[in-house]
Amino acid sequence: MGGNPISAQVDWPDRLWGQNQSGLVDKTAGAPQMNFSGNIPYTRLGTNWDSFGFEAINRWQFANDLTWITGKHQIKVGYEFRHHQFNFHGWAVGTGGNFNFNRLGTGGYDASGNALSSTGDPFASFMLGQVQDASFTIPLFTTFNGNFHAVYINDDFKVTRSLTLTMGLRFDYQGPWTERHDSMSTFDPSTPNPGAGGRFGAMIFAGNGTGRTGSSTFDKIPLDAWGPRFGFAYRLGNKWCFAAAMEFTTRVCRLAAAVRVPLRVSNPFRPQLT
Question: What is the pTM of this model?
């Protein structure tokens, strides 16, 4: 998915602010969006464009089981494997920039420095270049991979003609996520921070090389996702059957990948509401 605005690919950031002066990373997007808020309802200018790119999610899965019937037992064993791949290639919303203007940049103030609610105009602030705050999204190019394994065994034991017991055990393992180019980072509270006098708490980066952890993953997944199961069924005559079951399950690790990095910048000289 993605968007291809007609006004894209014309270097709007350089046209509006000069060569490499805007701070916007993506120069292929359409014109930036200008938003006006305040006592006068102006219509916004521009659109919150999507950037060029795509998102593709792939999954490969294999599952098989074997059933063995012997005496009063029906035993089933099985295995399941899944490989997940999340591809993000530059797609993001808001890469052209969003600039917000309000009345405070051109409003009046009383003797105590409080803003006067009936003064100021957001479009006048726009004409003077008084941006209240702005944001844009940095598109990423990542491919995340993860593997999932599960094995299980189950026994349906026919104790009598009326009573059947079901007993089983399942083991699940979601391996740690990796990124194709090791483009991952996280905060580690136990890592000394050289920029803070060696105090604990610093960003760490996956991969090999200077300043990296030497590993492609951050997670250490414990092998403890065991799920026992038990149930029974009891037949009461020819028309009734009473059954009950219980199981313990675990939730596997989910990928919460940041496919975009929003960056908001505020004008340090902007007036504040009081």
Answer: 0.66
The secondary structure of 11-76 as a DSSP string is: -HHHHHH-TT-S--S--SS-PPEEEEESSS-PPPBS--PBPS-EEEEEEEEEEEEEEEEETTEEEE
Q: Please name the residues in contact with 146: beta carbons below 8 A apart, sequence gap of 6 or more.
A: 83, 84, 174, 175, 176, 177, 178, 253, 255
23-34 pLDDT, tens digit per residue, is 777 777 778 888
Domain boundaries, the chain: 1-53+90-140+258-274
Q: In angstroms, how far is CA 2 from the centroid of its own chain?
A: 17
**Amino acid letter for position 257:** A
**In the chain, which stretches have pLDDT less than 50?**
1-2, 257-262, 269-271, 273-274
DSSP letter (8 states) at residue 253: P
Q: How far apart are alpha carbons 258 and 175 in whole angstroms?
A: 19
Do you know the residue count of the chain? Answer: 274
Are 185 and 203 within 8 A, CB to CB? yes
| CA 122 distance to own-chain centroid | 34
Asked whether the beta carbons of 51 and 108 are under 8 A apart, the reply is no
Q: Which residue has the tokens 């194709």?
A: 180
E strand spans, 71-162: 73-89, 98-102, 133-139, 141-158
CA 168 → CA 72, 125, 230, 231, distances in Å?
16, 69, 6, 9
**pLDDT at position 266, please?**
52
